[in-house]
Amino acid sequence: MHKLCRYIRFSINPFLPVDEPGFNSFASRPAGEGLAVFLELGVELTGEMDPATGLIVNVSDIDQKVRDCAIPVFANRIREVSRSAGHIGYYELVKMLKSAWEKLSDKFGRAQLSRLSLKLNPFRTITVDKPDCAMVYFSEKFEFAASHKLWNDSFSERRNIEVFGRCANPQGHGHNYIVEVTVKWLASRELRTSDFEKVVYQELITVVDHKNLNVDVPEFHQTNPTVENIAVFAWNKMVGKFDNATLHCVTVWETDKTYSSYMGSG
User: Fold this and answer.
1) Fewer CB near the terminus (10 Å): N or C of the chain?
2) What is the DSSP string of 201-221?
3) Percent above pLDDT 70 for the chain
4) What is the number of other CB atoms lying within 10 angstroms of the CB of residue 238?
5) SS3 readout for 18-43
6) Residue 29's closest CA among 67, 79, 59?
């Protein structure tokens, strides 16, 4: 069994009668004119690969089905709400995802639709993985800068350098970390962005930002602040702290080439 994911970017002008299709799907199609609502829909399919083609589904077919069937769901609703001076909250977005799922569910042959994600901006995404869209996953990225040193006092200096390399520099070194926090919540309940962000900021970011992790964070006095351990630490700081939501996953990027994810027991 294979999984295939395709991201389709599109832009909607709420107050224009139609959207220009455009010619650059890397940016967005429809293209949008001037200031427009930009979204990215991720479509994940699960199925067997066709041995004759090496494909689950041709990605050009995915693009076409999404543009024909799913994008109008978002475009029509965005226009309707915007023209009545209404607000589109997360509950409304989940309803759109559910409608899009219904429109797409039978469009890919034997491949099954297994996940839809909607990127609201480069750092915030909502995801559903069941047709009823009752459980929703909300992800947002944060940043912090910190220094650390990787060292084990039970190792010799030579062994520390062999294991940790330049990360064993006695004076430490710094990273601009990115942490993505994902919570899950019932679509019927309310999720407020500011409340979510406040938990992450107060429980995690203020503790680690512009800090020497080995010195300033007690949990790392005896534990190496590897990216793996930072992910566990972040989980432990935030688990159980969110209103109307449950912590699902924490991912920490040490660089754009290295990250670690942790999903505890909740």
Assistant:
1) N
2) IIIIIHHHTTEEHHHH-GGGS
3) 99
4) 19
5) CCCCCCCCCCCCCCCCCCCEEEEEEE
6) 67
Exposure on the CB side of residue 83, measured as CA atoms within 13 A? 11
For residue 205, give the nearest of 188, 180, 184 by alpha carbon.
180
Is the distance from CB of 229 to CB of 223 less than 8 angstroms? yes
- Would you call 197 exposed, middle or buried from its count of C-beta atoms within 10 A (0-12, 13-18, 19+)? middle
Cα distances from 35 to residues 11, 94, 187, in angstroms, run 9, 24, 29
The 3-state DSSP class for residue 108 equals: coil
Question: What are the φ/ψ torsions at residue 224 (nearest 5 degrees)?
Answer: -65, 130
Q: Residues 110-113: contacts with CB within 8 Å, 24+ apart?
A: 110/47, 110/48, 111/4, 111/45, 111/46, 111/47, 111/56, 111/57, 112/45, 112/46, 112/47, 113/43, 113/44, 113/45
DSSP 171: T
**Which domains does the chain show, CATH number per domain?**
2-133 (3.30.479.10), 136-262 (3.30.479.10)
Q: What is the pLDDT of residues 43-98, one digit of tens each?
A: 999 999 888 899 989 999 999 999 999 999 999 999 999 999 999 999 999 999 99
Token pair for residue 83? Answer: 């023209």
Please give the positions annotated as active site. Answer: 167, 210, 254
The helix/strand/coil state of 135 is: strand
DSSP class of 243: T
* pLDDT tens sequence across 233-255: 999 999 999 999 999 999 999 99
Q: Nearest to residue 19, comparing CAs of 11, 27, 9, 28?
A: 11
Looking up tokens 């990027």, which residue turns up?
A: 253
